[in-house]
Amino acid sequence: MRYARYMYMSELIIDFIEHMEVERGRSAKTAENYRRYLERFIEFAGDILVADISSELMRKYRLWLNRYTSDISGEDLALITQSYHLIALRGFLSYLSKRNIASLSPDKIELPKVHRKQVTFLHFEELQRLIESIPSTGKEQHLRDRAIIELLFSSGLRISELTALDRDHINTKRREFMVRGKGQKDRPVFVSREAAAHVEAYLSTRTDSLPPLFLNYSRNCGADRSGMYRRLTPRSIERLVSKYAKLAGITKHVSPHTMRHSFATDLLMNGADIRSVQSMLGHSNISTTQVYTHVTDTHLKQVYDQYHSENSTTE
């Protein structure tokens, strides 16, 4: 290997991405995202020597990111996306530091303060309307849609986790199973009796022996060349959820992630502790779960007004 001081970004990025996948166990998708973010730094600075990365260069890069406009969509980079670019670069610099390769210290990269969007969730009455908007025809497709909605709210699964499920992954009798989430971490998932019953009802109508739990029945994109149906994609589930939300007359934007928000909010409002909710959601950091705590503030205020002695009336 050449003297580290004279190593270029491009060759070390390859080493770093391989390190992420092999030694840190990150998914191929995560590694690919990091590679793309780091290549954007090369787009800005050129394929420079890593020893030439400086605080002043980083200041100019942050300004460049803030002013960046996509040639394809014409859109700017959202603040959270700018943060992802800087997180990737900070991880890269940490990797260089561990290998004793001279470059900028990773702690010199400060992330912009990102204000999280307010969490959107469904109240129980809205959830009931959503479910009732699904036709009760007994057709395989409608049974599938009901099972998907019930499972999303019951389990808090991410859409990528849901679409990756095979039939043999889920145990409807025990109503619990393991799922591999972000960072290749396994966690237990629990399912309500009603959700399990609707999954069983859907599977009972299936005459195929295909592994995927949920199939796409669309004539346009559902079947492959052999005529066999394909696995339902995240985009298809997004359209499915949005369609039924509109049929239910729900005006707020509803997505599969809204169901995950609803799952977490429902648990907290009914007394679950935040650490348990963190585990069930598969969050590696408690701060990610704490975004839900402000959602329950109104509920806690109602409890205070109802039960605090100074607010109670006595005869």
Plain-language structure description:
With 315 residues, the protein is mostly helical. The chain folds into two domains: 4-108, DNA polymerase, domain 1 (Orthogonal Bundle), CATH 1.10.150.130; 124-301, hpI Integrase, Chain A, CATH 1.10.443. Helix content is 50%, strand content 4%. It is built from 13 helices and four strands. The protein has helices at 9-22, 28-45, 55-67, 79-98, 124-132, 140-155, 159-163, 193-205, 234-247, 256-269, 274-281, 286-289, 297-307, and strands at residues 176-180, 186-190, 215-216, 230-231. The strands form two sheets. The protein has a two-stranded antiparallel ribbon with strand order 1-2. β1 and β2 form a beta hairpin. The longest helix is centred in the N-terminal third of the chain and has 20 residues, at 79-98. The chain is globular and about 65 Å long. Keywords: DNA integration, DNA recombination, DNA-binding. Belongs to the 'phage' integrase family. GO terms for molecular function: DNA binding.
Descriptive key words:
4 strands, two-stranded antiparallel ribbon, DNA polymerase, domain 1, 2 domains, 315 residues, hpI Integrase, Chain A, DNA_brk_join_enz, mainly alpha, two-stranded antiparallel sheet, DNA recombination, Integrase_catalytic, Integrase_SAM-like_N, DNA integration, 13 helices, 50% helix
